[in-house]
Amino acid sequence: MSKTLAGIPALDAEQTIAKVIVRTMKWVDQVVVVDDGSRDDTSLIAAKLGAEVIKHDRNLGKGAALRDLIKYARMADGVLVTLDADGQHNPDDIPNLLKPVLAGDADLVIGSRRQENVPIERRIGGAALDRATSALTGGVALDSQSGFRAYSEKALAKVSANEFGMGADVEILVKAEKAGLRIVQIPVTMNYASPRTSSRNPMYHWLDVFFSLVKFVSIRHPLLFYGGFSALMFLIATVFGVQTLDYYTKWGRVVTNLALISVAAAILGFLSFFTGVILFTLITVMRDEQFR
Description:
Layout: E1 3-10, H1 17-25, E2 30-36, H2 42-48, E3 52-56, H3 62-76, E4 78-82, H4 94-102, E5 108-113, H5 120-136, E6 149-151, H6 153-158, H7 168-178, E7 183-188, H8 202-220, H9 222-251, H10 256-290
Parallel strand pairs: 1-2, 1-4, 2-3, 5-7
Antiparallel strand pairs: 4-6, 5-6
Helix pairs in contact: 5-8, 7-8, 8-9, 9-10
């Protein structure tokens, strides 16, 4: 049987990390904590409890922590389950997440949060991000923001986290779908009454993930993304251009504001179009090189 590891990204989590580690140790062979630049005793507590600690000198973001955990699990030839350090995930759900991975029935298991347990402010923003992510993963409805996940050895070999921020969770899902990995979801319970260890508000989180999604779409479908924006700009240029000509025909003078909007939109349209073509060409060449 593969070695089981639990990876915990942590930032200033001294209030909750001990309880999370102790409860997690019951279900895995080893606990690995990535201290992402904490200014408190997170690392000290984790080490005293017997966890392997990887410490960042400064805060690099969740993506960097996930990258270290995936790399560590690869070197250990094990399977990995990740959970948050703030106590919101229930470590007693770990066996349920690991079971499909250990049985060979799944490559990536997501701990799907029951929506009735999610605070309304998170539910609204999370739903929009989930729908956007599902469009990138074949239309499969996934809890894209859940950090409670289990990875098989195959998944660990295929996925990576190049994003530094909160968009890493979405990045991994997109790469897993592209690699043809088997992704399943299992309901888990959440404890939203636990102390929060993150100083970043939900709006920052949503914006971070949103811009990551925009980047993934622009890279994966450059002609569609930039071509769509280009078509919109050309439409705006045409509308304001017609209005400018119409006003000039009737009154014999040019409305500067209308003309400037038309010209600016046309320039943006051309720039977007050529950006899409160039990016599409570069991506095609890089893909061809991979298969030579």
